């Protein structure tokens, strides 16, 4: 491979074909950081409206640091992977308190902030500061796999050095930010997982898989185990004109979000019995089963849930929280003021009509 020719063909193609994305119109490290946090495991078209709305509310690192975690989660609501924004919020406060609100220009200092892994550190510092470090994400791994016919699985973390060595061989240190963006864009638009458009690829003449007619054999992946599915129940508990919501712990899956209480169905247990049991275990309340409301299916990264939702009337008891850290009795009209998981949103919009007959 003629490296200079490869680099020029790649970046010239990028200049002529790159998508018009809002985060490409700035070199503000904060805005690039926000975009890269949102883009992890999320499609570009999904991210754009969230990115624009988020920056309207939190236009700089200081405004993000000064905001409550709940208000930040609310603006992220619906984007998923909430650990990303909790880390971004914690990191913003560290930047504000320890770096006078200026994002560190040094790669290692930036890398130490919460949620800043190798990918985000490389993307932000190379694009904003022209730090000479290559980015390696899923798109880049796929391009490298085909360019060099790498037989190592792209989803095997133990093979990371193979891809690191490969990208360093072709990395353009004279324009690191543009090179990194070009590689990611090539993977997104041309070197796609299925049906790659080799006829339009600017670097096909340098690609071993294309030359050998083996493009569809790459990249290699290890077999993933089957995704487990859990059966859970949720109780929408109503008392007079209000419903009960509880707050999840700040860390872990869906940390800091509000939800309706519930939990897993035990083997051999009916969903009605499970709902009454879970409500009592999680809140200390005795409730009366009203009616079945809806079944919701929802997928997370490593598992799926089948969620049966019930309307439950408060009977007696004082709140004694188990796993939750706070609770509120709120009116249905106030639900939109709080951040909820995506699974809850799949039935929340139907609650006003159904509860009108109960309250």
Quickly name the level 1 CATH class of the largest domain: Mainly Alpha
Order of helices and strands: HHHHHHHHHHHHEEEEHEEEHH
What distance lies between the first and last C-alpha atoms, to the nearest angstrom? 72 Å
Q: Determine the strand fraction and express it as a percent band.
A: 15-25%
Low-confidence stretches: none
* Structural class by SSE content: alpha+beta
SS summary, helix count:
15
Query: What assembly state would you assign to the polypeptide chains in this entry?
Result: single chain
* Known CATH architecture of the largest domain: Orthogonal Bundle
Please give the share of residues in helix: 40-55%
On the 0-100 scale, what is the average pLDDT? 94
**Domain module tally:** 2
Give the radius of gyration: 24 Å
């Amino acid at each position: 491979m003629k490296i200079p020719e490869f680099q020029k063909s790649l970046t010239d193609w990028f200049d002529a074909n790159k998508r018009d994305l809002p985060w490409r119109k700035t070199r503000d490290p904060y805005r690039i950081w926000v975009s890269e946090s949102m883009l992890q495991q999320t499609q570009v078209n999904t991210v754009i409206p969230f990115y624009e709305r988020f920056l309207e509310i939190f236009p700089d690192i200081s405004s993000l640091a000064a905001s409550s975690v709940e208000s930040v989660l609310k603006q992220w609501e619906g984007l998923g992977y909430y650990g990303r924004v909790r880390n971004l919020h914690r990191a913003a406060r560290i930047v504000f308190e320890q770096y006078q609100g200026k994002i560190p220009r040094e790669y290692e200092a930036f890398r130490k902030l919460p949620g800043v892994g190798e990918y985000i550190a490389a993307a932000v510092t190379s694009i904003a500061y022209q730090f000479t470090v290559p980015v390696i994400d899923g798109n880049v791994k796929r391009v490298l796999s085909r360019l060099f016919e790498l037989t190592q699985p792209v989803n095997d973390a133990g093979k990371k050095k193979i891809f690191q060595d490969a990208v360093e061989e072709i990395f353009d240190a004279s324009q690191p930010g543009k090179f990194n963006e070009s590689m990611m864009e090539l993977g997104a638009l041309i070197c796609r997982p299925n049906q790659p458009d080799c006829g339009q690829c600017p670097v096909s003449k340098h690609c071993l898989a294309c030359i050998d007619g083996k493009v569809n054999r790459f990249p290699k992946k290890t077999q993933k185990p089957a995704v487990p599915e859990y059966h859970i129940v949720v109780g929408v508990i109503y008392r007079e004109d209000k419903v009960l919501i509880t707050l999840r712990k700040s860390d872990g899956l869906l940390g800091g979000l509000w939800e309706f209480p519930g939990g897993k169905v035990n083997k051999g247990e009916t969903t009605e019995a499970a709902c009454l049991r879970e409500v009592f275990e999680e809140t200390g309340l005795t409730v009366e089963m009203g009616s079945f409301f809806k079944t919701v299916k929802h997928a997370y990264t490593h598992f799926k849930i089948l969620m049966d939702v019930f309307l439950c009337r408060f009977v007696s008891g004082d709140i004694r929280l188990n796993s939750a850290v706070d609770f509120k009795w709120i009116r249905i009209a106030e639900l939109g003021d709080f951040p909820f998981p995506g699974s809850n949103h799949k039935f929340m919009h139907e609650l006003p009509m159904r509860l009108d007959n109960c309250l």
